Amino acid sequence: MIGTERHESRRIDNQLRGRSGRQGDPGQTKFFVGLEDDLMRIFGGEQVTKLMNFFNFPEDQPLEHGMVSKALEQAQVKVEGFNFDIRKHLVDYDDVLNKQREIVYKLRRKMLMIGKETSENEMKETVLNTFSSEIIDLVNVNFAVEAKPDVHKLAEEISLIIPVSVDHIKDHIDNKPAEQVQETLIKMIENAYLNKEKEIGKALWHEVIKNIFITTIDKYWTEHLTAIDDLREGINLRGYAQLDPLIEYKNEAFSMFEKLLSDIDYEITRRILRVQLVQTEDNKTHVHSMMDQPVTYKSASQIDPYAKSQQTKSIPEDIQEIQTVKKEAVQTNQDQDQIQEGPGFRILPSGSLTKKPGRNDPCWCGSGKKYKRCHYPN
């Protein structure tokens, strides 16, 4: 077996040597290496060149001294160690995202397998724990130690979670310490949860909870993965500031993951208890979200004044009348984009009216900059 060069890994050379043996015959192997090969040029090629020039060896004379073979093996050991460090470093980066993935997928699977692997009590406990953590955070923010408790602001935040008036909430939490306020609000949420379950029905209510949890987790998890990829691409630049990129990556990823969990809890708690039954003309019961839809911002250059009129002309009059009746029955907004279909009900997810711009698209604020240079990531 004749080799025209030496590979940077000894394992590959040994595999090639093994090809020379057949049926008990070990065979012979011979490698030819030039001084201009990458392996010799980077690791010790100049020393061999100086040696040949000192002894005035002709250029066509081969060198078969053990020193040359030893220098090649040392070069291969250095390259193998460098490649091992690269793979080990990559595993360290992947472990950060794998731990986050385990936490998110565990919650998602728990809600996905309601009625199979997850019992009703476990599902209810998970939902109430989500509400409890959100209530505790709101109370801690508005009941600071040094400042005066902002009861009105807290009541406004709670009214986004429970569909009751602000005055009704203030009557229950006014002139009470933080601990009693937390207990009172948690009891109000438990009562609202039980009332909503009786109003909608246990089976349909569980489907609503499952759908809201899964759609919210999927939405924010995909955005988190995109942000993590962007962070991974540029984290090595922290090395110029004498910082360890791996440690900086772990710190940034941890902060982003905490924000991910808080965003998921924030949207879930403000959607679950604000659903209502809507009876349509086909005598089917749908569940419609009462959550206020965010305002859609668009720059003037992206608005096509003829798009809506052309779509209206292309639709027959009979179909237009049917669509108008359905819109009035469901009481949707004029800017409604789409409604996600579910088994036996419909849920209008928040953010469905706004199409997420691409990284290179103009930013929605109208500044003229690209989205990735302006408001991405938030």
List descriptors:
two-stranded parallel sheet; 5% strand; 378 residues; Rossmann fold; metal-binding; 2 domains; cytoplasm; Helical scaffold and wing domains of SecA
Descriptive report:
This is SecA family profile domain-containing protein. It is a peripheral membrane protein. It is found in: Membrane. The protein is mainly alpha-helical and 378 residues long. It has two domains: 2-90, P-loop containing nucleotide triphosphate hydrolases (Rossmann fold), CATH 3.40.50; 93-273, Helical scaffold and wing domains of SecA, CATH 1.10.3060. Helices cover 57% and strands 5% of the residues. It has helices spanning 10-18, 38-42, 45-55, 66-112, 120-142, 151-161, 166-173, 178-200, 202-234, 245-269, 307-314, 317-330, and strands at residues 2-3, 30-31, 275-279, 285-289, 340-341, 346-347. Strands 1-2 form a two-stranded parallel ribbon. A two-stranded antiparallel sheet has the order 3-4. A two-stranded antiparallel ribbon has the order 5-6. A hairpin with a 4-residue loop joins β5 (340-341) and β6 (346-347). α5 runs antiparallel to α6, α6 crosses α7 (166-173) and α8 (178-200) crosses α9. The longest helix has 47 residues, at 66-112. The protein is elongated, with a radius of gyration of 33 Å. The chain starts with a strand and ends in a 31-residue tail after the last strand.
